[in-house]
Amino acid sequence: MPEDTTVVLRHPHTGTPGLFEVDVAAVCGIIGLAVVWASVDPVFVEDPESETGWREVLGKEATFARDLKMVREADLVLTFVDEESAVDTRVGTTSLALKAAEEETPVYQFAYRHLGDDRWELVLVGSDDPSDKYLRYVPT
Question: What residues does each domain of the chain span?
Fold first, then answer.
């Protein structure tokens, strides 16, 4: 990746990020890439019973809003899921890859495959980068 790359990682509204995100942040620190954490912020939905007419919510709506913002601000989206989740659109990360393609943000989706014991491999399972602008940065 170029030296001025900023890696944006998902962070839950409360608690700590997942082990994968923590590991990626550590690797970025070692190789000198900046990391920004994207937290889930509450979103507001109409609520006619509320004094203001709006209600603050977290959950799937807020997570989707955060992910959509990340996609729209990104130059490139890389997603990583287990092999079974790679085709399951109910999985948030898989939906994120599809949303990136819809938004015309170049995206590469990887799945990690367990080979037995402590062995794993990373497999490119999908991409949408029509001009191959980022192909040289992505392991294929």
Answer: 82-140
